[in-house]
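Researcher: Let's do a round of design. I'm pasting the structure tokens now; please hold your answer until I've finished.
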């Protein structure tokens, strides 16, 4: 399983999320290191200025990513490599959506909450098909999701590039793990 892979996965995500942005067509609004102003305000419990958002650092956002995304998605119980894909999709499209896509793929109840039944179904699927195949399937589902979004014309090329690059990184992680 993927225990202790959080830091490796976070590095990949922060690379893709980049620095401060406030694109007028981005429904997330003001964002730095992939953390929206709204999410950061909820995390620290009060409003923040653009100046504070611009000063976010990886060490400031890492605990947020761990608790609100990695832990929520039970990534320590997901095979190495696939943990990156599920985590990245959760960051980019919401943890509930990422969980439901994984659940649909493994034939578990789609409730958006990864629990023991989802993890058992995932273990069976990866045992029969291989982690690499499951990664490919999950990433293909992500591609389909992005292509249907109304903002695809603006952001689609970047999203698809990200999915492809995360897929490559995820498959490398499985090889590093000896699987």
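Researcher: That's everything. Go ahead.
Model: Designed sequence:
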């Amino acid at each position: 399983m993927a225990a202790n892979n959080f830091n490796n996965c976070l590095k990949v995500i922060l690379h893709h999320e980049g620095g401060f942005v406030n694109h007028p067509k981005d429904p997330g609004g003001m964002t730095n290191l992939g953390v929206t102003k709204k999410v950061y305000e909820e995390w620290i419990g009060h409003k923040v200025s653009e100046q504070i958002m611009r000063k976010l650092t990886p060490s400031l956002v890492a605990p947020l990513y761990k608790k609100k995304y990695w832990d929520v998605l039970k990534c320590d119980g997901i095979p190495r490599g696939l943990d990156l894909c599920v985590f990245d999709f959760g960051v980019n499209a919401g943890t509930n959506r990422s969980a439901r896509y994984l659940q649909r793929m493994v034939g578990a109840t789609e409730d958006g909450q990864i629990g023991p039944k989802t993890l058992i179904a995932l273990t069976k699927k990866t045992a029969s098909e291989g982690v690499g195949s499951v990664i490919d399937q999950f990433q293909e589902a992500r591609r389909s999701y992005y292509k249907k979004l109304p903002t695809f014309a603006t952001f689609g090329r970047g999203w698809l590039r990200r999915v492809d690059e995360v897929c490559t990184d995820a498959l490398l992680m499985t090889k590093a793990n000896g699987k």
